[in-house]
Amino acid sequence: MTRIKKNTSNKLIKKRINYFFIIFLLVCTYLLYEIVNLTIFKNEEYKNKIKSQSSEVINLNSGRGTIYDRNNIALTDNEKQKILLVPKDVISGNFENISLIKEATKLNEKDIYKAVQNQLSSEIIEIEINYIDKNKIDDLKKKNILVKEKTKRYSNNNLLTHLIGYIKTSENEGVSGIEKYMNDELKDSNNNYISVFKAGINSSGLNYLKGSIQEISNEEKSTHIKLTIDSKIQEKVEKIMDKEKNPSAVVISKVENGEVVAMCSRPNFNQNKISSYHNSTKGELQNRVLSVTYPPGSVFKLVVLYAALENNAVDENYRYYCTGSCKIGSSKSILKCNNNEAHGMETLSDALSNSCNCAFYDIAKKVGSKKIFQAIKQLHLDEKVNLGIDEEKDSKIPQEIALSNLAIGQADIEFTPLQINQLTQIISNNGTYMPLKLYDSIIDNNKNSIKTYKTNKKTEIIAPYTMTKIKEMMMQVSKVGTAKTLVDLDGGCGVKTGTAQSSLNGKKISHGWITGFYPEINPKYAITVIIEGTEKESKSAIPIFKEICENLK
């Protein structure tokens, strides 16, 4: 009996020891986790907290690499603002110093006191100035007042806003566009700031330590991004697009190498006032070139034509007599040409020039849906362009679509203007597919290349003979077809127009497309334009295309 009690007691002691040992292990594991968390994962966070408590930072720039165009013209960080940095105790109640600031800057007392009022929690008051008397700079410096130049990330000319995107200033993180996609390359590569060490307690908290104001910069090690964009062309395009009230988009690429030289989306936005767009329903922050898909409308007839020619479903001897409408299959449904216009006897080139729906339905029946879907794939329309922007969307290609809709690019099939521009580049370049490209290189402060960017897609030759034929037919569209108002364009061009049916708030609307190349001989640019229809009106994109070409000379 005694032995049984003794064994029971021993077991109980062992259980308690095991229990306490497990608790001990858990505590040790938790402590080890906290040590690792603090020393490794949260080390930077706590360092920044300590730094913020012991010092004050006045940024003189965004702390990000500059974005340049193809000619090394700065697209960001190109607007400077002179500022005064004034210790609060130097200006508080000191009328002599206030008078000195007034004389040196031509500011009035109201401006100075307003700046102080808005920065009561800061030990260093930042005051924007538009004038400085150079003879007074040394006098200001003796009073510990510094004259500095601050670089703004975004200017107010709002150029290339959708493509550049914007940052969350408080965290210096890219939110959209290039700023987001290239955040790791841009962030913290171009820091320039004033650091003020705080020490000594006063009634309002920590006071700055005299003589501790330092300018810190890592600009010598800065890296920047160079794009293929041509800012001069971009400026011209944006001025043209600013006149258009309907939502719209334009993209221009170089035919020979696929480099994107201009991209514009409307309505525009101000990168310095992002909060004002959060509740907007106008889509100002959308880059319509690559983040919105649209039915291609008659622009898609280029794909149908390619499929038909490549598969020998039609040739130059093709003829079709258009009466303005035709039956869809064995149904009672009718497919109509625009405005029920009867085009009469048409050649293949006439059918494209007139954008004849009935002729292209006939062509689609000859080639078949399967071959048209294969053509979509061969022409890279089933994939993203992969320009290097997170917001870029892929095409919408349904598994099943009525042949009558597929033939004329209507219903549920959709592409981005960027994808249509890639298609145009292929045709314009006689079948040589050059993947569209946005990023040229990473450069240093002296504009020397550190790293050159290449696309992750390979160049490809796609049916050069067929593409040459299509290219010639597109020239006819601009002379005698749906875009014959371009006939007097100096240098000529080749285009395909389109009207894409859609809906807005339950009402039918139509978007206006045009895509083409300029000039017609040895094309240099592939240009794609879309103007969204609204409940009030639908518009042609031809006038904008023409004005852009006239400004590319």
What does this protein look like?
With 553 residues, this protein is an alpha+beta fold. It contains 18 helices and 24 strands. It has a five-stranded antiparallel β-sheet, with helices on both faces. Strands 1, 8, 9 and 10 form a four-stranded antiparallel β-sheet that branches. A hairpin with a 6-residue loop joins strand 15 (325-327) and strand 16 (334-336). Helix 1 packs across helix 2 (43-54), helix 11 (301-310) runs parallel beside helix 13 (357-367) and helix 11 (301-310) packs across helix 14 (369-378). The longest helix is centred in the N-terminal third of the chain and has 40 residues, at 2-41. The protein starts with a helix and ends with a helix.
In which order are the strands of the major sheet placed? 13-12-24-23-22
Mean pLDDT: 90
Low-confidence stretches: 49-53, 200-206
What general form does the structure show? globular
Give the termini distance in whole angstroms. Answer: 111 Å
Let me know the number of strands: 24
Helix tally? 18
**What's the story with the biggest beta sheet?**
5 strands, antiparallel
Strand content: 15-25%
Précis, in short:
A hairpin with a 6-residue loop joins strand 23 (507-518) and strand 24 (525-531).
Question: Which labels suit this protein?
Answer:
4-stranded antiparallel beta sheet; alpha+beta; 18 helices; 5-stranded antiparallel beta sheet; 24 strands; 553 residues
